[in-house]
Amino acid sequence: MSHKKITSNPALKDHKQMELNEEWNNFMKRIGEVSTLVKDLASGDKVKSEAAKAIADQYLDGKVILDEDVKMTIKDNRTLINQKAFKSLEKNDTGEVDKDAWMAEVSKDAERRALDRKIRKEKADTLKTQATKAFRRGEYDRALSCYNRAIEQVKDNSMLYCDRALTNIKLGNFDKVFSDCEWALRLNENSFKARLYRAKAYQELEEDDKFEECKKELKELFPQHDDLINYFLRKDMNEYDEN
Questions:
Q1: Is 27 strand, coil or helix?
Q2: Can you say where the TPR repeats lie in this chain (predicted)?
Q3: Which residues pair with 73 in a beta bridge?
Q4: Which of 51, 75, 80, 112 is deepest in the core (most CB within 10 A)?
Q5: What CA–CA distance (Å, rounded) separates 36 from 60?
Q6: How far apart are CA 170 and CA 155, in angstroms?
Q7: With contact defined as beta carbons under 8 Å apart, do 169 and 180 qualify?
Q8: Is the predicted pLDDT of residue 36 greater than 80, yes or no?
């Protein structure tokens, strides 16, 4: 059978079209995910905004994979989320996506974000150092202020949430401990400190059922820390310093 007959086979053409459709669907799915993140970031809802920011940072740590053999054409009138990346569309009647322009803009944006993240991390590290020193001096209000500002700079560091949770325990702000422990566990599901501080908060609030449940979980997951767990969860514990 000749090569011409093979390539003109309708079944092969349908298969190729299916591949292109799949590529386009994947492409639009990614755009949809980014669009959702943008909406959450601008929603005004603090929880949604912080979660979206953490996820967006994870996106930026990944890599964009291109298939140079695939050439996608936009046939429908779809909303473009990045006019710079698609500027070639204004000069191209076919509506063909300029992948080089797209990748160049994505690369520039990634570089800008990477630099911004580096600066924010340096600020957060400085604030964490100040918070640690204040905590050790017993200046818990100042330590809390520093941790608040550090988390404003970097929202995906589980240790910062744990440190702020412990500071709130020292200040008697037990209701505020749970949110930080939840965030720490979202970022690091194996966090020992997040579970320990959550148990302590339930203990201080005299929510016995939840306290016993958390304590049991701690002992099952971290038997190597049994002495530390017993020490920290003593009712009269008031000198614990994890920093």
A1: helix
A2: 124-157
A3: 96
A4: 51
A5: 16
A6: 22
A7: no
A8: no
CB 240 within 8 A of CB 232: yes
Angle between helices 10-41 and 46-60 (to 10 degrees): 130
Average pLDDT, the chain: 76
Give 115-152 as a DSSP string.
HHHHHHHHHHHHHHHHHHHHHHTT-HHHHHHHHHHHHH
Give pTM, 2 decimals: 0.57
Give the largest CA-CA distance in the chain: 87
Q: pLDDT class for 80, splitting at 50, 70, 90? A: very low
Chain centre distance of CA 147: 18
Q: What is the mean pLDDT of residues 127-134?
A: 97
Tell me 51's DSSP state: H
CB 20 within 8 A of CB 14: no
Q: What is the pLDDT of residue 104?
A: 72
CA atoms in the 13 A half-sphere facing the CB of 154? 25
